[in-house]
Amino acid sequence: MKKIIIASGMICLAGLFLNCSYVTVLRTQELYAVRDSLYAEIDTLKNKLVEEQQTQNELLRTIRADQMMRFSELEKQIGDIDSRYSENRLLLSKIDEKTGVFQRQLEAKLASDSSSLNSRNIEIAKLFQLAMSDFNAGRFDIAKKGFRDISSRFPESAQGEVSEYWTGECLYAKKEYSEAENVLLLYIKNFPHGTKACVALYKLGLCYDKMDKEKSRELVWEKLLDKCPDTQEAQIVKFRKQ
After folding, report:
1. How many CB atoms lie within 10 A of CB 166?
2. How many CA within 13 A on the CB side of residue 135?
3. Rounded distance, CA 7 to CA 158, Å?
4. Which residue in 17, 82, 120, 230 has its CB near the most CB atoms, within 10 A?
C-alpha cells in the first residue's frame, strides 16, 4: 500500500514537471518571437536611417556641387570685372595721355595764333597810320592806295571798315565827287551802323552839294538828322538850314 502511494506521488510529480516544462517551452518560444520581431523592427529602422542618411548625403553633395559651381562662376565674373577694370584704366590712361597731348598742341596753337594775331594787328595799325600820315600831309593819291589796300586785305578788321570811309575822304579831297559819292554809298550800305556811318552821311551830302544835287543832299541830311540827331555833323546841318 505504501509503495502504491509513493508511486502515485511520483507520477503526479512527473506530470507536474512535464506540464511546467511545456509551459516554459511555450513561454520561451513567445520570447524568441518577440525578440525576432524587435530585431526585425530594429533592422527596418536601421535601413530607414541608412536610406535617410544616404538621401541627406546625396542632398549635401548636390548642394556642395551647386555651391562650388556658383563660387566658380562668381570667381569668373570677378575675374572678368577685374580684367575689364584694368582695361578701362589702361584706356583712360591712354585717353588722358592723348588729351594732354591735344591740350598742349591746342595751347601751342592758341599761343601761336595769338602771337600771329598780335603781329597782324600791329601790321594793320602801322599801315593805317602811314595812310593817315599821307592823308594829313596832302598826299591823297598815296593815302587812297593805302586805305584801299587795308580794306581789301583786312576787311574784317576795324581799320578795314574805317579805311573804306577814308577812301571816300581822299576822293572828296581830290574833288572827285562822283567817285567819292560811290565809295561813301557803298560804305553806308556795308556798314549801316559803322563807326563812320553818321560822318559818311554828312560827307555824302557835301558831295551832292558840290555836284549841285540839292534834292539828294537834303534827303541824305534828313536821314542824318533822323539817325544821328545828337552828333556834331547833325548840328552843322541844322545850322546850315537856318
Report:
1. 24
2. 22
3. 167
4. 120
d(CA 99, CA 102): 5
Task: Cell 573804306: give the residue.
Answer: 164
Q: How many CB atoms lie within 10 A of CB 59?
A: 10
Would you say the C-alpha torsion 95, 99, 102, 104 has a positive or negative sign? negative
Nearest Cα residue to 197 out of 227, 240, 242: 227
Task: Give residue for cell 512535464.
Answer: 18
pLDDT by 10s per residue, the chain, length 242: 656 666 566 665 555 555 556 667 666 777 777 777 777 777 777 777 677 777 777 776 777 776 777 767 767 776 777 677 677 677 666 766 665 554 555 444 534 444 555 889 999 999 999 999 999 999 999 999 999 999 999 999 999 999 999 999 999 999 999 999 999 999 999 999 999 999 999 999 999 999 999 999 999 999 999 999 999 999 999 998 88
